[in-house]
Design a protein that fits this description.
Blueprint (H helix, E strand, L loop, with lengths): L8 H13 L8 H12 L4 H11 L3 H10 L11 E6 L2 H5 L2 H12 L12 E6 L11 E4 L23 E3 L7 H5 L9
Parallel strand pairs: 1-2
Antiparallel strand pairs: 1-3, 3-4
Helix pairs in contact: 1-2, 1-3
The protein binds FE2/S2 (inorganic) cluster.
The site of FE2/S2 (inorganic) cluster has 12 residues, from helix 5.
Amino acid sequence: MLEQEPVDAELQKIDDYIQRANHTLSNSDIIPLLQHIQEIYGYLPRVALEFVSKRIHVPVSRIYGVATFYSQFSFVPRGRYTVKVCVGTACHVRGADKINTKLEEVLGIKNGETTPDYNFTLKSVGCVGTCALGPIVVVGNSKKSETCCGGPVKPNRNVSLGDKFYGQVTPEKVQEILEPYRGSNNE
Ligand code: FES
């Protein structure tokens, strides 16, 4: 039986999600639950994780353990879109550093930072599984339909369902890649 106590609007959405599951969620259900929380807040606030821990009777340390394993999750507020530059070996030898430098220049932030308008967060990730098309940039907000350089890509620990992949990226293509994500018509 779930505890009944007053909660704010965001926590109520999480509670509704858990109630719809209609059972105490198992470990394998934690990832979609965390994704749901991140869609609500844009990141995983501690208050939400503690709330979930109480609701599903899973220690908060275990929830953090799951969340920290997947780079798709953030514990600090981040941009509407996360721009991931692959720095795996194949992309590295094909110029990932130059792509990162250009992204930093265009966005006006350093890797790991978020733009002041909270539209973009830039981060490095390990191999995303499309080495032959490197260097790769992935842009996502976990809501877009999944597309990739000509074919489907399975989400892995570095990317999320809904991320959009850009292959054979050059510094000259960076502006063009980011352009569709500026403004408000991107859902
Ligand atoms: S190293 Fe970048 S996709 Fe594999």
